[in-house]
Amino acid sequence: MTTPSPTPILLQPAENAGSTPPRWPHDGRARAVVEAVLPAVDGGRFAAKCIAGDPFAVTAHCFTDGHDALRVVLQWRAEGDAATTEPTEVPMQLLGNDEWQASFVPPVPGRYHYTVVAWVDAFDSWRREMVRRVEPDDIRIAARVGALEIAAAAQRAEAADRGALVEWAQALEDGALAPAPMARNDDGDSTIDVDAEQADALKALALNEKLAGLAARYPDRRHEVCFRTELPLVADPERARFSSWYELFPRSTSPEPGRHGTFRDVLQRLPAIAGMGFDVLYFPPIHPIGRVQRKGRNNALVAQPDDVGSPWAIGAAEGGHKSILPALGTAADFRELVTTARAQGLEVALDIAFQCAPDHPYVTEHPDWFRWRPDGTVQYAENPPKKYQDIYPFNFECDDWQGLWAELKSIFMHWVGEGVRIFRVDNPHTKAFPFWEWVITEIKREQPDVLFLSEAFTRPKVMHGLAKRGFSQSYTYYTWRNTKEELTEYFTELSSGQGTDYFRPNVWPNTPDILHEHLQGGEPAVFMSRLVLAGTLAASYGIYGPAYELLEHLPRHAGSEEYLDSEKYQLRHWNHDAPGSLAPFITRINQIRKENPALQSDGGLRFLQIDNPHLIAYAKRSADGRNTVVTVVNLDAHHTQSGWVNLDATWVAGGGDDAEGEAAAPAERWQMHDLLSQQRFVWQGDWHFVQLDPHRMPAHVFVVRRHVRREHDFDYFE
Description:
It is a single chain. The chain is α+β, with helices and mostly antiparallel strands. The protein has four domains: 99 residues, Immunoglobulins (Immunoglobulin-like, Sandwich), CATH 2.60.40.10; 93 residues, no CATH class; 288 residues, Glycosidases (TIM Barrel), CATH 3.20.20; 113 residues, Sandwich (Immunoglobulin-like). It has 16 helices and 33 strands. The strands form eight sheets. Strands 23-22-21-20-15-14-13-24 form an eight-stranded parallel sheet. Strand 32 and strand 33 form a beta hairpin. The chain is globular, with a radius of gyration of 33 Å.
């Protein structure tokens, strides 16, 4: 039977008899303070995010009273580890100002937990004080104190180490108690004198680094303090951090105009898409399309007999969200496509839209999952003045909400079973937030490599709320950020703002729903500059592929962001061999992204001063500092623009305001290799001239090569 711990008793004066005794702390001898552990998304309410195989850095604010030494360790474990499994510990290093830091590498995708533990270390405190002691008497007394600490460590040590610690403790004790040597004055009188050399030898023994390291392995942690909670972490596959998306409608991939495309037609397009450097191939919904209230071309309310309808009006007699539109092919065809694409470096992403056409089987099988109006009809989707009569939203407040949730989860799991590992989720902000937190957590516990992209063009806090609840990546406002000021402010926020621990941006210059007015002039320079900005400012980007590749730019009407003859409502035939295709340029941008680690994460972004408002300049540096890319873009599609850009020579050399330690000496000169034009320039100093003619090339994408040596009158850069 376990003996209960004694309860502290407070002796009180008689006049206070009967009053409530004070509440004792758990253990008042625990003097370390762990005040904060970062990152902590909403105090640990939501998980931070990282990439499996990459270091995940943790910072803690820890201190104690007085001048004693503190030991701080980071603890981490994989979720699901047995309760008896000890967490892995990593010593934390003091950065300064009571901030400690360490990192660990989650080995595989999955959920993890981390926290911080600190304690006052009597042994380390003793050693620090011993370093400062100079008086022989102080050294002897301190040596005896240290002998006691080391002897205690020996009691905690493993058998193999115990003997060395015992011997060390005994040597310190014996040295401290050894009689001081005799010395004689010049007059010959006998006297006792403390030998400074003996004290110095004793101090050297006390500060033996090898033995100190041995003792440090067995600290006294009886009074350690743990942060108040374990913090959650989700480790995702690398593609969550760095990805290039290409969206196409499988039904428009037929090489023959007028024929409905199939999965087998998509197979023929795979080499070209992979050859352009994309690694995610994204399909709109591939399910049966409703016939009731089907929309016609250009969103016409009345469809003609041959109109194919919107893929987002999901469900018909052939099935619903787990079925495939027969005109596209079979489930076996889809699985073959997924497998073949993966073999070519492409992951197939599938659109999941939780809504139904009026003739979806769910409407008759589960009528309680929908909202019914007083006239006996189902409430269709609308965003006044827009109406979507061909779409019924789910009612997330229905009485059978648990059944609804379970069925929606089973849709994801069905397609996971078919080989899909990436889902783009349509309008998640119009579905219940608790549902997303539950379903994403449940799915990633079973399939930790599955990724979710949130297509939510809505208010910032809502977008961040979805990211916190598990979405791996998020759409952004990039489509509507076009000026130098807008781009600078927005990407500074995305790369270094509050949401960097959980919000991963995925930027798109166009989508099937959005043709921004900036693209409606059809100027190649605009399409090229927007692609460069997307591919170099953000680690993940995407394009509505054929339309962007072939400069599709006509709106449905003036002031509209919808495409004329939108592929959402009809078959399109794309001539990928058409003159003026941007495919070669897109290929080069994706190649540059893959060759330069600086462009493969959203950190390390630094906007540069440039004296022309029509030019924007910025640099990105890889986490290890070995790769730096400088991009300059002409935002004026019609005129040549020039200016002077400030590229700090000290920063180029590896110092500057974002470097650790002392600033490096300024670089004498370095090479700027333009990866688009293949020109090379040698720069030196801080200010540098650039000029861009948008009719030739609207951007520079430079890789910085530092000067390393000079031989035989040739400069070498790397």
